[in-house]
Design brief:
By secondary structure, the protein is an alpha/beta fold. The chain has one domain: Rossmann fold, CATH 3.40.50.150. The chain has an 8-stranded mixed beta sheet, with helices on both faces. The protein starts with 8 loop residues before the first helix and ends with a strand.
């Protein structure tokens, strides 16, 4: 189902310009676009040198806002390619005056355009689209081509924390991490009954748990 464009979207995005970088999407060649570096000045953005964590696909921002509140000594960049969704997260951060969250409106393919090598300590992948059809395999956010991008921006010893309700995607991701040389440091196939301290529940996660679906969690280390 196609999402209706929110009213006054451009104006609302402009009002959030102090906490948001919108990618220039004029070049549809993602590889070439990623090579034209426009690194975020994270020290200037946050006013400190605290560790930086990245959520890829932040949706309406529940996870990043609540996780940032629990970790005031950490800076968070939340990436979301759909501006129609991202605006809700941006406006929540401004309304709640959250100082350690910044937003990036771009696709995961061009993350290296904005992040210097070894600049991110943790990446969150929360309920990414599993794209079950075989023809879309390369678009899955745990496909080796994406894991290579993440490896380049993660610090030594950096981790990816992934949650999904899709068992096939979970299995695919486990194999992808191993094939890409990541070390699997933790797995959970029933997060509802084995909660992790400090792990914030996302909007989708709450819905899936209410439906009785299993929640899978992986921690993979560079």
């Amino acid at each position: 189902m196609r999402m209706h464009k929110k009213g006054h979207l451009e104006e609302r995005l402009e009002n959030c310009a102090d906490i948001l970088t919108v990618a220039d999407l004029s070049d549809k060649n993602m590889k070439r676009a990623a090579e034209a570096k426009e690194y975020l000045d994270l020290v200037k953005i946050f006013g400190n040198t605290n560790p930086v964590r990245l959520e890829i696909g932040c949706g309406k921002g529940k996870f990043v806002c609540e996780t940032a509140a629990l970790n005031p000594e950490v800076n968070f960049v939340a990436c979301e390619k759909i501006s129609n969704v991202l605006i809700d997260a941006c406006e929540r951060v401004k309304a709640e005056n959250i100082k350690n969250v910044y937003f990036l409106n771009c696709a995961a393919e061009v993350l290296e355009k904005y992040f210097k090598p070894r600049s991110v300590s943790r990446i969150y992948l929360n309920f990414s689209n599993p794209l079950p059809k075989e023809g879309y395999k390369k678009q899955r956010l745990t496909h080796p081509r994406f894991l290579g991008i993440y490896r380049n921006i993660l610090t030594e010893g950096g981790v990816i924390v992934q949650k999904t309700d899709d068992e096939a995607f979970y299995r695919f991701s486990l194999e992808s991490y191993k094939a890409a040389g990541y070390r699997i440091s933790s797995v959970c196939e029933d997060l509802k009954n084995n909660p992790v301290e400090g792990d914030v529940e996302t909007e989708h996660e709450k819905m899936f748990k209410q439906r009785g679906k299993a929640i899978y969690r992986i921690v993979a280390e560079v």
